[in-house]
Specification:
The complex is a heterodimer of chains A (about 170) and B (about 130). With about 170 residues, chain A is mainly α. Chain A folds into 2 domains: about 60 residues, Helix Hairpins (Orthogonal Bundle); about 80 residues, Up-down Bundle (Monooxygenase). Chain A is built from 7 helices and no strands. The longest helix of chain A is centred in the C-terminal third of the chain and has 29 residues. Chain B is built from 5 helices and 3 strands; from the N terminus they run H-E-E-E-H-H-H-H. A 3-stranded antiparallel sheet of chain B has the order 1-2-3. The longest helix of chain B has 27 residues. Classes of the chains: A mainly alpha (about 170), B alpha+beta (about 130). At the A-B interface, helix 5 and helix 7 of A face strand 1 and helix 5 of B.
């Protein structure tokens, strides 16, 4: 029987998960499947424990990151949030993206670290607000169609955040 | 991954970067985005009374292939009718730029931007006729 990521860590399949439980149960599986415990085991047991450790890693990385977790929850509903053939996003959101990208580009060129940091704060606030929306859409409303759009927005915002961090590092 | 010469050429010397007057009734705007790579593309076309695209401008935030794809289509669009523009396929863009499989989605983005701009101009024309 194959467990999904939530079942593996004994978690409810919701967006607003108990991160402490995720952390604890992940560490538990990691230590239980540690190679040191399988020195004298059969090769089949070694393989099995290694596969479990790999699965736990993958599951942990997916559930720990809000955007990945949202994508995974949608997948469990049979919804693919990210596909190369879906390029549609609300126009006002894309306009806003353009503006953020322009600010990032101008501030990087001007080596204006204050503007970059302010932009990063703004993006992080935006990310938090989208995560609050996702919590409501997934866990209370079960509105997967809007959750999908919000997930796509969150992935966009994460990308901008990563690019701003890169620009800041570059200037440091 | 190495970019083709054509991609590099468009990336280093992008054609038709900029914007047109979005309030002009003869200007259509298409905006699309790809969350996975964070690319955003804005394409604007200016159509004359005969339905021919007179001018095209773009602004793209994204990788070299996304910029090259949008730059290339602005060149292709000029002189075409909006129906010819609508028929442009991403495979033609990918082929012209010799895009590798992992960058095909950039050409999809450009095709969708054209379709969105054409849809916008058609909606503007329809509301003009209704008025």
């Amino acid at each position: 029987m194959s467990l999904n990521y939530y079942q593996l860590f004994d978690l409810q399949p919701i967006f607003n998960i108990a991160l402490a439980t995720l952390e604890t149960n992940y560490r538990k599986i990691q230590s239980e499947s540690h190679p040191d415990r399988f020195v004298t085991a059969t090769s089949a047991e070694k393989l099995q424990s290694m596969q479990l450790a790999t699965l736990a890693n993958e599951a942990y990385q997916t559930l720990k990151n809000p955007a990945n977790r949202a994508q995974y929850l949608l997948e469990l509903q049979g919804i693919t949030a990210i596909s190369e053939s879906n390029t549609h996003m609300p126009t006002d959101f894309l306009m806003q993206q353009m503006q953020w990208r322009e600010t990032l580009e101008d501030a990087s060129a001007a080596k204006d670290i204050h503007t970059l940091e302010a932009l990063l704060d703004e993006m992080q606030a935006e990310s938090k607000s989208l995560q609050a929306d996702l919590s409501l859409l997934f866990d209370e409303k079960k509105d997967y169609s809007n959750a999908c759009e919000t997930t796509r927005k969150l992935i966009f915002i994460d990308k901008v955040c990563a690019d701003i961090r890169k620009a800041i590092e570059h200037l440091d | 991954m190495a970019y083709s010469d054509k991609v590099l050429d468009h990336y280093e010397n992008p054609r038709n970067v900029g914007t047109l007057d979005k309030n002009d009734p003869n200007v259509g705007t298409g905006m699309v985005g790809a969350p996975a790579c964070g690319d955003v593309m804005k394409l604007m076309i200016k159509v004359n009374d005969d339905g021919i695209i007179e001018d095209a401008k773009f602004k793209t935030y994204g990788c070299g292939s996304a910029i090259a794809s949008s730059s290339l289509v602005t060149e292709w669009l000029k002189g075409k009718t909006i129906d010819e523009a609508y028929a442009i396929k991403n495979s033609a863009i990918a082929e012209e730029l010799a895009l590798p499989p992992v960058k095909i989605h950039c050409s999809v983005l450009a095709e969708d931007a054209i379709k969105a701009a054409v849809a916008d101009i058609k909606a503007k024309q329809a509301s003009k006729q209704a008025a």
